[in-house]
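Hi, here's the filled form for the chain we discussed.

Project: internal
Contact: R.S.
Residues: 283
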Amino acid sequence: MRLRRAISGGFRVARWSDDDATDRLWWRCYGLLVRIAAISDVHGNVFALEAVLDEISSLQIDLIVNLGDLLSGGVRPAETADLLMRTPAVTVRGNHERQLLELPRDQMSRSDSLAADEITATHRQWIASLPARVVPVPGVLAFHGAPDDDLVYLLETVTPDGVRAATMDEVVARLGGLPDERLLLCGHTHLQRQLRLSNGALVVNPGSVGWPAYDDDRPHPHVIEAGSPEARFAVIEDVAGSWEATFYSVAYPIETAAEVARANERPDVEYALRTGRMPSSGK
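And the returned structure, exactly as it came back:
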């Protein structure tokens, strides 16, 4: 089969042929993929997503990988779904997509409830089609939290005293051992972080496109804060056979998004969008 590449909306995007094995052989033999844009945790913030996609379009990207938690939040889930469905990308589902599909309406969080009320049957069919993890190209594994659990923090550890960077031993244990893949892409914690494992593999969290701060009670009460309100993503390049990551932060119409969150009766999201912090943190 012939490898097909398409240019759409300013992106250089890989298109699979009808034979996945043939596609993987092409990638391996010719090394065509060298620059990946990783995005994650859009959480229905279409304003931030538009800014990030605009920035990505200027960066000569070969492939976009979207790491999940797409729609649930306090802004505009249906518009976000429309834009994501038009965007050429390899996408995995996050815990919020799973919850949207599995939980009864009366058991949903406020973020999931807003998305459930606004998205269409077409949007639901799309998120139902998304895998929990994917190998977008040989040697790269993409997932939301950890490969086998979308709620696991891979690169952070929550303790009774707060959140800290996970140790290499903790990360390897959560992966079930050193990975065969050379690049692992994860999201979920909304924090930009990378870790080079002892076998040379790189683990990258690109941060959150659309929600820079949140709090949670599991496994201990804690706050996650980016510390500033910009939209975030990462570009990962194959440099002489080794993956290297660069983190980006992008300004966008923050006040517009915050006002929508206020109209949706989400003052916590409004505050997080404006500041990159949570009001409960006291910072």
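Let me know if anything looks off before we file it.
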